[in-house]
Amino acid sequence: MSASDSRLLVFISPSTEVHGQPLGAGARSGVRRRPEARSPAPRHSGLRASCLLKKELKKRRSTRKVYKEDPAMVDTVKTLGIVFDNEQKNGYCSGEIVSGHVLLDLLAVTQIKAIKITARGCAQVCWNEGPCGASSPITAPMATPSLGHCIKEEVEYFGASQTLIETTGSEDGEWVRLDAGRHELAFRFELPQRPLVSSFVGRHGKVQYGVNAVLQRPWAQDQSVNREFPVLSHIDVNSPPLLSAVSTNKEKMISWWIFTSGPVSLSVNIDRKGYCNGEMIPIYAEIENCSSRIVVPKATIYQIQTCLAKGKTRTYRQAVASVRGNHIPSGSSDTWNGKTLKIPPLPPSVLNSALIRVEYSLAVTVQIPGARKLTAELPIVIGTIPYAGLGARSASVSSQVSRYMSWLALALPEEPEAPPNYANVVTEEEFELYTPSLIQSEDLERQLGGPIFAYLQEFQFQPPPVYCEVDPHPVWVQEPPPPLGVSVSSASLPL
Questions:
Q1: I want to staple 103 with a disulfide (CB 3.0 to 4.6 A). Which of 9, 68, 81, 425 is the partner?
Q2: Phi and psi for 275 in degrees, rounded to 5?
Q3: Is residue 54, in this structure, part of any structural domain at all?
Q4: How many angstroms separate the Cα of 71 from the Cα of each of 12, 22, 108, 220?
Q5: Which of 374, 391, 408 is the last residue of a domain?
Q6: Positions of the region Disordered (predicted)?
Q7: The domain containing residue 335 runs over which residues?
Q8: 3-state secondary structure at position 280
Q9: What's the number of domains the chain is made of?
Q10: Contact 305, 204 (CB under 8 A)
Q11: CA distances from 452 to 55, 238, 441, 446, 460 (A)
Q12: CA angle (457, 463, 467) in 5-degree steps
């Protein structure tokens, strides 16, 4: 055997290891084994990334050093804000003035290009409608949803702008220079005279009014700040439509398969339709349970938000307050004689917007085990001008009566002539003839022995007589005689 053959025999010897494992009978019989995966050799990608990071940090440090050395690139604005003159105001109305100040606090002398302020009010609705018609609220209106499409629409109610500081120069010497410290720049807007929509933020839409101030500086990025202010569209709950009572009746037959349990009836009414925050709603209800189950009544105030955009509608309904009644056993009834439900702090009803409607309702439900609940719902309006009591009702009634009387006055004939005077009809002779003769006062005083006034005063201040059980002035009444044919015994006669 040659040397090459011996080397070959050594290579395929059973004790020889291939990739760390000895070759067995399978290797000698020609069966090829799959070698294990080797770990990749280390690369220099990590080192390269670290080098790039060091270069970037070095570049940023050098740039920051240039900024610190250049005074024009230093940010000298400490604060930028907006303050209203009447911060405690609950809401602005149509035609009112919105005034305030733009606060600018500077750390050093600063060049100002312009300071502008803009006031705007608008209504926005936006929701995501999926491929199957499902909807979901959009937290970021400008974001594009991954599924379905976004339905949104916007209506602007008013807009105004003012320029507080402005320069037209382009060189350094022509910019406005403000000293370091606090600066106040006044602004003033007048809301439109037409009716505005009340501020509201809901699930699928909002109505907002705000002021935006923009600070423009040369060789620097613009800075801006926003501030919202509330707007109220007043609703008077003392108007005749909101003072009218509201009532409804409902009935439900309880059954299971072919067996009938009995009806459950519900009758609800409230004395008026308009209320304000913090008021108590007295509820008058009659619940009659003729079924074989125990039912529970409950009263709830619901807020209904309706958004409209591009011919489509989305409604969101949520409960804001509730009160529960007692259990009503089978075959019995319950009566609510003014059960109260307090209205929590809520935004007023929004009824004059083309995109958003905010409505409220009072629902009295009867929960029935094993069946759908019986519900009687009454619409209510949350206003801003509180209820004035009985004066509002009397005023509304008097206005209606005055209106009816004005129509009645037009239908009545003219005023008739006055009757003749009594002196023109009765002569003096007839007057003396039919007038009885009176005793002269002098003769009366002579008979009494003093003036008449003294006797009147004495009679006026005289005390009442003393009480006595024995009548000092008895009156004897004669008894009638007995009828004919009746004998009177001596015992019956008085002694």
A1: 81
A2: -140, 165
A3: no
A4: 80, 76, 10, 12
A5: 391
A6: 17-45
A7: 240-391
A8: strand
A9: 2
A10: yes
A11: 130, 62, 8, 10, 12
A12: 150
Does residue 324 lie in a domain region? yes
In a domain, 399, yes or no: no
Distances from the Cα of 372 to the Cαs of 183, 297, 367, 395, in angstroms? 65, 13, 7, 44
What length is written for the chain?
495
pLDDT (tens digit per residue) in 423-458: 555 555 665 565 555 455 566 666 666 555 555 545
Q: Single out the residue of 308, 321, 307, 337 nearest to residue 382, CA to CA.
A: 321
Q: Distance (Å, rounded) from C-alpha 110 to C-alpha 78?
A: 11
User: Do residues 153 and 122 touch, judged by C-beta distance below 8 A?
Assistant: no
Q: Nearest CA to 325 among 367, 272, 356?
A: 367
According to DSSP, residue 73 is labeled G
Residues with Cβ < 8 Å from 378, sequence gap 6 or more? 246, 247, 248, 268, 269, 270, 361, 362, 363, 364
pLDDT-derived band at 35, boundaries 50, 70, 90: low
Separation CA 26–CA 117 (nearest Å) = 88
Q: Is the domain of 363 the same as that of 258?
A: yes
First to last CA, the chain: 188
| CATH number of the domain bearing residue 301 | 2.60.40.640
> DSSP letters of 301-320?
EEEEEEEEETTEEEEEEEEE
Closest CA to 230 of 213, 214, 207, 204: 207
Q: Looking at the structure, tell me whether residues 334 and 221 fall in a common domain.
A: no
Distance CA 11, CA 15 (A): 9
With bands split at pLDDT 50, 70 and 90, how would you rate the model's confidence at 487? low
187 and 298 housed in the same domain: no
pLDDT digits (tens, 9 = 90+) for 386-405: 998 755 554 444 444 454 45
Closest alpha carbon to 347 in 322, 380, 384: 384
* Strand 274-275 relative to strand 374-382, pairing: parallel
Sign of the dihedral defined by the CA atoms of residues 354, 317, 350, 161, in that order:
negative
